[in-house]
Structure formats: structure tokens, C-alpha cells
């Protein structure tokens, strides 16, 4: 598969899908990494597949669904016999459909890169998307494979490790893990998904089967799923052990090896909101103007928007389609109509979750540029000045 | 029981327990509301019962455990027959012991009262305590009463309502509710507790039986438990419908009726940390000095302390006895040794949870003064200046 070409690196990207979207900003061609413009992103509650961000660590696998299987193994649990599920077996489990926003841990990395140089693809605020996902629940598949309930002393505190098929730049294959309680808990809605927005998954998004872990950084929603392992410890993967962690502000490249083992692997997402319209430095007239954006912080929350740099705040109108609070994984779109804007207005937004957590006023630097959820601030230029 | 005495109000508090603790600051005598000093609080990982904050809304019930029962009812679920459990029946369920910090939603209300007048007992940062709690799991008791799994379509999205025995100033009785999924989820560890720190509950803390809801505002951990009702909606209690909600900053007394129905009832706690030693305006020498405090934000987190008003931060040493991350309900005590302090040093602390949420730099006002988790700031006076 990988024909080494000196000029192009060790991997062959020539079989990657063709991706037609005028709203996608390509941050890197090989591996393919792209995010939509913010004004495209905020236009629809369900993000269309072509405009959904693509985050890759290698060439896109080109799998044959009729031959593909997913193995479930638990080498340290004698009661379990390894088994493989093919796609038609996975489709025989009850089909669960959920709406879930998936966000990359590196979303808004550009904001941290302004503080000091960060390592990673310099994403803006578009590496988030809100889709419907359908498939078997991880719970059903693990129970069918004989995995005990997560409360069973034999597996309490264990983890579920996922491995993808395909080549990967940083490790042997792409891998990640989540705690077993999360994988098995009925109200966490972890899926083995084969559909996105009502259609078969596209290659870019994990065809024929991927993990969806709602409420957790996108890195754990492993695409092109090959292997599930139930094990006492977290995944040994680069992406669990040595990446996707929040480094202290002073740590740089030469201290990574020392710090990585001391830090916890990221899972749950923090409170987040972003202004998508208007955009930074957009020229607008003095008003009226509608400010729009997205937020993720569960179903029950408040959205504050300021047009004076954070001195005063107004509550925005919210739009989401939450079925019930404990199963709310979708994002919320919000809007605030402002009658008048001052010259050089600084727009700021901050979301609050049900517990009263909110976004920090200013970003705190970390070298890998992850989990930036500082209040989103943009300046607009009144058109009279332009 | 309640002999009305014009001079003393409608309730009789003469049978309240005698409470000997030199470290308890009484905020209100009737009903009894008291919190420990911060330096007493930070001294031990497990808070002793006499120094554990007391939050009451009426006289303390004086119940006979040999006659006390707890009912489980579900009037809108035909499959369930109401039943009552007496204390020896409750003790026959497997005994679960957990360490959990319980925090009042009004903890640190004094910080919001500095911004504008708030309604409620003006608590400092001592309405939190960390104890071992033991009893039957709510899950076991509800299953024994015939309540279906929370994922069952018959009860999906339902709530579990708790009522206490005894008189209450704001309502007929004290009541609250939590979502059924939370009550039933094995990894939420909701208890019907009859022991605190290895001994029978004291009257002040709910003898003979109380609810413990880890990770949630103290208001839901109903004491002197009388009645459990499984129902489609939240509790109708004053404390669920019309209190313990975060009002927008502009709302005052005359707008409460309009705002309460529009706001969600508080449940989960936000990220919190407090400096307990030294205390505000304490005179200290120029150093070395050990700064100590508590934090709640799950097992995996970081604790930042600043001695220059938040310009620079150091990581504190942590102490907790977490058995496993998904079951961590205890607080963490932390300490930072500082070699030297400047004149008029401003000490600040901020905790981070595993998701990267942290405490806001400055408090945001709400009239009921709940959920204040702003970065805790104190000024110390170097003794050379005193």
C-alpha cells in the first residue's frame, strides 16, 4: 500500500477521497486536515458531511464493508473468548440514533498559538461538527461478547481500547481508549456507528464503522475500527499516553518525555462557545446586527454575549433539539440581535453549563494547544470607518 | 411539637442537639446554620462530625430509629406497589461506604454579597465537608421496590423525589429531587446513608437515615428521609422549583416569580477551590510559608496557586485518597510551600478539572448567591508591616 516516495514522505495519499466543499479550509493536505469556515458552520443545526471537519493522522483507508470485521478481545479476562463481528452482525443489534457534536481537542488552537508557538495543526474554531450518528451501542456489543457489567469487581476501573486499520504517522496504528464504565453506561450513548446524517459513513469519517464517544474529545471516536480490547489499563497508544494532554504552561518540546507520564489523558470536553458571525475584522455597519455562534455544555445552560469587551452581558436566544437533558450530546446554536454597535466593538461570548462552570476570560497556554475554551473575543470594524 | 411563641417564631427549637465545637461559626441560631473556620476545615482529610457544616431549614427532628420507615412510591407507575422499608430492612442491603465531599450551593456566598446584597445565610467558604458515608445504595433499594432500570422507556427522563420529616420554614416539608438516571446509575453512588465517619448519623446530619448524592449540591442530600417518590417530573418543592437556581445578574426580589420557572434546578457542582491557610488579612512573615486549601473537581485535575495576584502560577502538591477516578467524590487537600512572600501579597488559587474547566477570575453576581466558584483571592499582611 505505502509506496515510499522520497519527495512525498513514507505514505501514499493518492487514494484519498475527493472532497468537494467550497467552505472547507485545508490546513494540511497529507494527512488531510480541514475545517469549515465559521459562517458555513453556524448555518445549519446538523453539519453537512462535506463541511464536517476532517482530522487525520495518515492516508484514508479504503475498506471493503463486506469483508470488514471488528474484533472484541480481553486477553486478561479468562472468561472472554475473542470474537469478530462482521458488518451484518453489527447491523443486527438494535440501531440507536443520536445527535452528537464531535470536537477535536485542538479546536481553537490558533488562540493559544498567539500566546506562544504551539505544536500541532493550527486550527481555528471549526474543528467541531454536529451530526446524527447511528449504529449499535457499544454496551450491546460488549455484552454480546460476554464483557461483564462495569460494576463487576472483575473489571472495575478497566478500560476499552480501540485500534483503527491503516497507517498512521505517529504510531503503529491509530489508537485510543475510554474507561469501561463510560463504554458500558446506558446514558453515555457510546456507539459503533455505521451511519452519519442518515447515510452510510463516508471514507473520511470512518467507513465502514467507527466509534462515537459523545461528550469526549474527538480523538477517542476512533474511525475505521479494527479492534476493541477490554484491559485493566489505558491504551498504550501515542494518542493516549503521550498526546492529548494539557501540559503546564512552562513545558516545551525538551520536557515532553518527563511530563507526559505525569498527566492525565483528556476525555470529557470543557464548556465551549464561539462567535461564528460576524467574523474577526469583518466590516459591519453600526447595527442592527445578529451575532451567532455555537456552544457545547449540555442541555441546560446559559449563553452570555457582550458587545463591549465583557463589561456587560446579554443572554442569547438558544436553539437545540435536545430530547432530554441526560442524553444531550448535540451542540446548541445561539443568536443575539443587537440594535446598535459602537465603533471598534469587541464582541465576547461565554457559555455556562448546568453546574455553573463557565469559560475563562483569557486563554492559558499549553504547548500542544489543546482544550482552549477561553471566552471568544472578536473585533469588528464598523463600515463607516472602512 | 411546635408550640408557637410570639417572640420566637412559629417553630420550637428547644430540642435541637447541643453542639460542642470551638471551631464552628454560627451564622444563624434558629434554624441552626453553622460552618467551621477554614483553618479547622483544612486540618484533616476527613472532616470530624462536630466541625462538619450544619445547614437547616427548621428544627432538628428527634426520630426513633426503631419506628422509622422510608416509603418508596410511584403513583404514576401502575407496576409498582408502594412499600415502606424500616431501618433493619435498609441495613440488610449490601452496605456501601464512600468518601464524598458535600457542599452547600451557597458556599462562598459572602463573595457575591460583596458585589451587591444577596438573599440567604451569608456563608464564608466553610459549607463543605468531606466524610465517609455508609448505607444501602439507592439503586439497590429502588430495584428491590420494583423500579425499572432508568433506561426503560416507561421511566426514561423521570425523577426521584425525596421528602424529609419535620417542619420547614419555606415549605410544607423539606423536599428535593434528582434525575432517576442519577439515582440508579451504579457509578453515581447515591446512598441511603445511616452512618457518617463510621458512626451512626447524628441528629444534625439526618439521623436515622438520609440521602447522599455525591457530586451534587448539598440541598439534594435530603436528611431525616421520609418518602421517596418516582415521578415523571421534578419535585414540586420550593427547594427544587423556586430556589437553588442561578438567577441572571440583574434579577432581584420583585422578579423572582417571573424568573424561577425559566431556570434549571441546580444539581452538579462546579469546579471549586479555596485557600484555607493563611486567612484573609492574616499577618505572616515574609516566608517561608505553606499555603493550604481544598478543591473539588474530580480525581484528575491540577491545582494552581499564585502569590502575585494571578500573574504567575505554581502547581500545588495534592492529597486525596481516591480509590478510582470514576468513583472519586472526595475533596482534595492541597499545599504549596512558598519560600518568600512580597509585601501585601495577593494569594490566588484556581483548580482545573479533567476536562480543562477552571474557575472564573472574578465572581458573577446572582441574587441568591449560589455556586460562587470564582478564583479565591486573599491578601496577607507581612508581619514586618504590622
TrEMBL record, chains A, B:
Residues 1-10 have a biased composition (Basic and acidic residues). Residues 265-380 form the Moybdenum cofactor oxidoreductase dimerisation domain. Residues 57-238 form the Oxidoreductase molybdopterin-binding domain. SUPFAM superfamilies: E set domains (SSF81296), Oxidoreductase molybdopterin-binding domain (SSF56524). GO terms for cellular component: mitochondrion. It comes from the Eukaryota. Keywords: Metal-binding, Molybdenum, Oxidoreductase. GO terms for molecular function: heme binding; molybdenum ion binding; molybdopterin cofactor binding; sulfite oxidase activity. Its cofactor is Mo-molybdopterin. PANTHER family: SULFITE OXIDASE, MITOCHONDRIAL, SULFITE REDUCTASE. This is Sulfite oxidase. It comes from Thamnocephalis sphaerospora. The lineage of its organism: Eukaryota, Fungi, Fungi incertae sedis, Zoopagomycota, Zoopagomycotina.
Amino acid at each position: 500500500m505505502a509506496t515510499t516516495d522520497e519527495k512525498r514522505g513514507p505514505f501514499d495519499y493518492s487514494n484519498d477521497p475527493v472532497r468537494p466543499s467550497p467552505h472547507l479550509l485545508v490546513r494540511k493536505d497529507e494527512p488531510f486536515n480541514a475545517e469549515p469556515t465559521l459562517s458555513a458552520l453556524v448555518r445549519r443545526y446538523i453539519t453537512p458531511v462535506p463541511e464536517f471537519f476532517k482530522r487525520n493522522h495518515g492516508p484514508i483507508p479504503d475498506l471493503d464493508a463486506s469483508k470488514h470485521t471488528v474484533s472484541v478481545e480481553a486477553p486478561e479476562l479468562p472468561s472472554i473468548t475473542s470474537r469478530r463481528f462482521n458488518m451484518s452482525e453489527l447491523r443486527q443489534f438494535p440501531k440507536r440514533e443520536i445527535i452528537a457534536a464531535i470536537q477535536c481537542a485542538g479546536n481553537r488552537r490558533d488562540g493559544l498559538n498567539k500566546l506562544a508557538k504551539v505544536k500541532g495543526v493550527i486550527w481555528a474554531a471549526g474543528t467541531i461538527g454536529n451530526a446524527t450518528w447511528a449504529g449499535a451501542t457499544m454496551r450491546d456489543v460488549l455484552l454480546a461478547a460476554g464483557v461483564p457489567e462495569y460494576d463487576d469487581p472483575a473489571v472495575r476501573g478497566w478500560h476499552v481500547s480501540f485500534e483503527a486499520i491503516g497507517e498512521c504517522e505517529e504510531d503503529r496504528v491509530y489508537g485510543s481508549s475510554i474507561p469501561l464504565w463510560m463504554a458500558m453506561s446506558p446514558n453515555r450513548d457510546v456507539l459503533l456507528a455505521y451511519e452519519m446524517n442518515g447515510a452510510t459513513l463516508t471514507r473520511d469519517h470512518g467507513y465502514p464503522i467507527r466509534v462515537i464517544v459523545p461528550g469526549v474529545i474527538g480523538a477517542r471516536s476512533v474511525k475505521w475500527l479494527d479492534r476493541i480490547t477490554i484491559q485493566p489499563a489505558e491504551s498504550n497508544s501515542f494518542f493516549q499516553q503521550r498526546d492529548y494532554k494539557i501540559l503546564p504552561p512552562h513545558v516545551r518540546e525538551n520536557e515532553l518525555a518527563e511530563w507526559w507520564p505525569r498527566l492525565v489523558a483528556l476525555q470529557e470536553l470543557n464548556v465551549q462557545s464561539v462567535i461564528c458571525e460576524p467574523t474577526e475584522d469583518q466590516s459591519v455597519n453600526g447595527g442592527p446586527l445578529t451575532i451567532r455562534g455555537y456552544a457545547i455544555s449540555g442541555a441546560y445552560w446559559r449563553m452570555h454575549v457582550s458587545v463591549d469587551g465583557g463589561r456587560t452581558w446579554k443572554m442569547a436566544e438558544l436553539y437545540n433539539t435536545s430530547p432530554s437533558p441526560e442524553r444531550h450530546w448535540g451542540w446548541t446554536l445561539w443568536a443575539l440581535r443587537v440594535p446598535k454597535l459602537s465603533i471598534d466593538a469587541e464582541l465576547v461570548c461565554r457559555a455556562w453549563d448546568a453546574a455553573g462552570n463557565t469559560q475563562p476570560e483569557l486563554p492559558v497556554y499549553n504547548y500542544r494547544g489543546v482544550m482552549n475554551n477561553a471566552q471568544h473575543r472578536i473585533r469588528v470594524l464598523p463600515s463607516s470607518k472602512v
